[in-house]
Design a protein that fits this description.
Keywords: Nucleotide-binding. The chain has helices spanning 32-41, 85-89, 104-120, 145-155, 170-180; strands at residues 17-25, 54-63, 66-75, 94-100, 127-133, 158-161. With 218 residues, the chain is an alpha/beta fold. It has a six-stranded mixed β-sheet with strand order 2-3-1-4-5-6, sandwiched between helices. The protein is globular and about 45 Å long.
Length: 218
């Protein structure tokens, strides 16, 4: 399943473009693919297909005077695909872990995902965001925001309250990750762990000073 490439708007100033691998992680039905569809096309569908294995998409956004090309792997959340996830995130520059705030079990699993990424990623500076999805169903919330906030602060995560249905904070989620990325994409030494495409560069550059690696609770 692929939603296609969505590039930055025509006529915008051209800046250096770098490809950063980003992986979406989380249990089944938490809304990973819906978040991605909202980010790529600003659309929402109740009939979205279940991801099998992983789906690949790209989108380029502007951040800190540069064009950041996200190379996004949307991974399946079913248990039978769980063992495949490290193949996608080990060489990633960023990971977005999603949970359904109306389902406490998915938050517990999200914590496991975060710790797994931190302990096994080949990138010691991987940017990790935590998306508390389905904010439009706040009346059914099972995970107190304070609990998510405490975990994010403890682990140094970029935390946002999101809704793929309404679009709340979805763009900000990816913009926040882009702001935290270093100037250069992570390149793993191990062969076969990185999936990238060749991208050109044009005149202009950032200030060479990456921001803090992570921040919490926007």
């Amino acid at each position: 399943m692929s939603y296609g490439d969505a590039a930055s708007s025509a006529g915008a100033p051209r800046m250096p473009r770098k490809g950063f691998k980003l992986v979406l992680l989380g249990d089944a039905s938490v809304g990973k693919s819906s978040i991605l569809m909202r980010f790529l096309h600003n659309k929402f569908s109740e009939e979205i297909e279940t991801t099998v294995g992983a789906a690949f998409n790209t989108k380029t956004i502007e951040s800190r005077g540069r064009q950041v090309k996200f190379e996004i792997w949307d991974t399946a959340g079913q248990e039978r695909f769980r063992s495949l996830a490290p193949m996608y995130y080990r060489g990633a520059s960023a990971a977005v872990v999603v949970y359904d705030q109306t389902n406490a079990v998915t938050f517990e699993r999200a914590q496991e995902w975060v710790r797994q990424v931190m302990s096994t990623s080949t990138n010691p500076n991987i940017v990790i965001a935590l998306a508390a999805n389905k904010a439009d169903m706040e009346d059914k919330r099972q995970v107190p925001w304070e609990k998510a906030e405490a975990f994010a602060q403890q682990e140094g995560l970029f935390l946002l309250d999101t809704s793929a249905m309404s679009g709340k904070n979805v763009l900000r989620l990816f913009e926040g990750v882009a702001e935290l990325l270093p100037d250069e994409p992570f390149v793993p030494q191990q062969r076969g762990l990185q999936v990238t495409t060749n991208v050109g560069s044009t005149n202009g550059a950032g200030d060479g000073k990456p921001p803090s690696r992570r921040l919490c609770c926007q």
